Amino acid sequence: MAPARCPLSDSRPSMSSALLASSLTSYSEKKDRSCLSQKFHDRPVRMAEIAVVFDFDKTILDCDSDDWVVDKFGLSEAFDRLRPTLPWNSLMDRMMMELHSRGKTVEEIADCLKEAPLHPKIVSAIKSAHASGCDLRILSDSNVFFIETILRHHGIMDCFAEINTNPGSVDAKGRLNVSPYQDFYHLSHGCKICPANMCKGAVMDKIRSSASAEGKKRFVYVGDGNADLCAGMKLEEEDVLLPRKGFPVWDLICRNPTLVKARIREWTDAAELETVLLNSVDALGRLENGNAKAIRPIPVACKFQTSLLDAAPKSPTVRREPEPCSSVV
Ligand SMILES: [Mg+2]
Ligand SMILES: [Zn+2]
């Protein structure tokens, strides 16, 4: 059985230190948490104009929730064997069917999810951003059962105004059904970055539209994967993208920073994400207050590749890879 795979021990290839230093700002603006919290509460109206959209797996959660359940229930071999024959989302539904056939209950699946690693710093960051008045949303290719189970367990479910993900529901027989966000058997989104069941860029457009209608002016996006770049490419110059350092979205940006119009702040782990996230929304609040220098522009210095698809990283130790639209079965 393969061990559970968590990103912090992942040894995927990444860019050289010199290149990274030239392409992304190193975030050294460590601020005192209590000062930040006080600043938030000084400007509740402006903070309400900021929407923060989080990826879930390897961003809020420290590992991939699908991998976690598959590995913990001993389904790794079956998953890897069927992987070439099914899209990821359909394969997860197959795995849930397998668990049901083995007599595993949804309560056991929920208990497994509650053990998945979610750092306390992530919880405090989410609670602080929510308390400041920011509009928090999730955009994930996991499923609603997994995400809600984990968020409730950590007491942060109510911090989020919206969860955009694949449906996941329990039927009358007690079997968890996972289905695609988009019915890709009948409608292709046409995006070559994202898996067939969900184009994060297209969903980001919807989020942007609905949030803007509610008065949101600035967006922060946090993520780690290839599809998070698709969402990040929907950000405007005044927005902020927070890519996880050393992960696919960060590799792609390093190779072609011009893909993203938004300001970029990298982060490595939960503690750094808390600092970067709270400083970013604080800076956006100052920006809204007319201080255009609140966030420094990012030097764009590593344009050695222009093709996004050419730049797609090879990550042999990671299960979740981009699926071309033609992979629809
Ligand atoms: Mg992710
Ligand atoms: Zn896409």
UniProtKB/TrEMBL annotation:
Swiss-Prot/TrEMBL keywords: Hydrolase, Magnesium, Metal-binding
Domain of life of the native organism: Eukaryota
Cofactor names: Mg(2+)
Pfam families, alphabetized: Put_Phosphatase
InterPro entries: HAD-like_sf (IPR036412), HAD_hydro_PyrdxlP_Pase-like (IPR006384), HAD_sf (IPR023214), Pase_PHOSPHO-typ (IPR016965)
The keyword Magnesium is annotated on this UniProt entry: yes
Tagged with keyword Hydrolase: yes
PANTHER family (alphabetical): INORGANIC PYROPHOSPHATASE 2 (PTHR20889:SF22), PHOSPHATASE, ORPHAN 1, 2 (PTHR20889)
Protein name, entry field: Inorganic pyrophosphatase 2-like isoform X1
